[in-house]
Amino acid sequence: QVQAVESGGGSVQAGGSLKLSCSASGLILSNVCMGWFRQAPGKERTGVAHMRSDGSTMYADFVKGRFTISRDNSKNTLYLQMNSLQPEDTGMYYCARGRYYQCYYYNLGSFTNWGQGTQVTVSS
Fold first, then answer.
1. How far is CA 95 from the centre of its chain?
2. What local confidence, expressed as pLDDT, does residue 1 receive?
3. Fewer C-beta neighbours within 10 Å, C or N terminus of the chain?
4. Angle, CA 50 vertex, CA 48 and CA 52 arms, to 5°
5. What is the largest CA-CA distance in the chain?
6. Which pLDDT does position 69 carry in this prediction?
7. In the structure, how many helices (H) and strands (E) does the chain have?
């Protein structure tokens, strides 16, 4: 059973940065569409960004210009660089694999192989 593993979360002050990592044994990330998601306390999980196998990316409006999804094929690792973090960015962050080539971060039902998440806490 393939499962993603997220890391890199932590606590930062507003305006700070974090870089999350996602790996998945048994899965070549460059061959699939991958997405990042987050879930704030008491709220539903929501999509943040996705990267398709061809390297194309798409972001949710609330992270555009602040977050960057990338992939290191040599390390088989997906990243989410988060800059200018704000308290509203606080939550558990997850990565997952899209079931289809044309995955969309806002269609959570089309993702599988979810990780356990990594906590991001931004204080004001």
1. 5
2. 76
3. N
4. 180
5. 39
6. 98
7. 0, 11
pLDDT tens string 63-98: 999 999 999 999 999 999 999 999 999 999 999 999
Beta-carbon contacts of 90 under 8 Å, excluding residues fewer than 6 positions away, are 40, 41, 120, 121, 122
| Overall size of the chain counted in residues | 124
pLDDT at 50: 98
Those residues of the chain that have pLDDT short of 70 are: none
Contact 107, 58 (CB under 8 A): no
Tokens of 59: 């972001």
- Burial level of 57, CB count in 10 A (0-12/13-18/19+)? middle
Burial of 76 (0-12, 13-18, 19+ CB in 10 A): middle
